[in-house]
Amino acid sequence: QVQLVESGGGSVQAGGSVTLSCAASGYTYSHCLGWFRQSPGKEREGVATIDSYGNTFYADYVKGRFTFSQDSAKNTLYLQMNSLKPEDTAMYYCAARCKATMVGFQRLGDFFEYWGQGTQVTVSS
């Protein structure tokens, strides 16, 4: 049984930092992973994804600010977010396992089979 549980969200001042965690169970792959976010009235969008070949990609608006990493020993994914902006306010989700071979950055999450429940990040100015 695959289960993904996000944690670490909360409220932070603009310019601050937050690190999100995604604890995975029943899934040990180091590829086909992703962090997505969604704010009210907007479509879900990719933040950072790792394709089927283990390559990491980031959305242009987070490059240089966010870092997607993982600890295989703990079977946990992380999204380190620095220099946060009010525009980063959203529900953040982790996703895993590809429905098919996935190559490159995934702006949409249609290729992923499993999703976490999400963790809210609110950035105030």
Structural features, described:
Helix content is 0%, strand content 50%. With 125 residues, the chain is mainly β. Strands 2, 4, 5, 6, 9, 10 and 11 form a seven-stranded mixed β-sheet that branches. A four-stranded antiparallel β-sheet has the order 1-3-8-7, with no helix packed on it. A hairpin with a 5-residue loop joins strand 5 and strand 6. It is globular, with a radius of gyration of 13 Å. The model has no long low-confidence stretch (mean pLDDT 94).
Features:
seven-stranded mixed sheet; 125 residues; 0% helix; mainly beta
Major sheet size, sense and barrel closure = 7 strands, mixed
Helical fraction:
under 10%
Mean pLDDT: 94
Structural category is: mainly beta
The shape is globular
Report how far the terminal alpha carbons are from each other.
41 Å
Radius of gyration: 13 Å
The number of strands is 11
Low-confidence stretches: none
Order of helices and strands: EEEEEEEEEEE
Percent range for β-strand residues:
over 45%
Number of helices: 0
Compose a concise summary of this entry.
This protein has no helices and eleven strands.
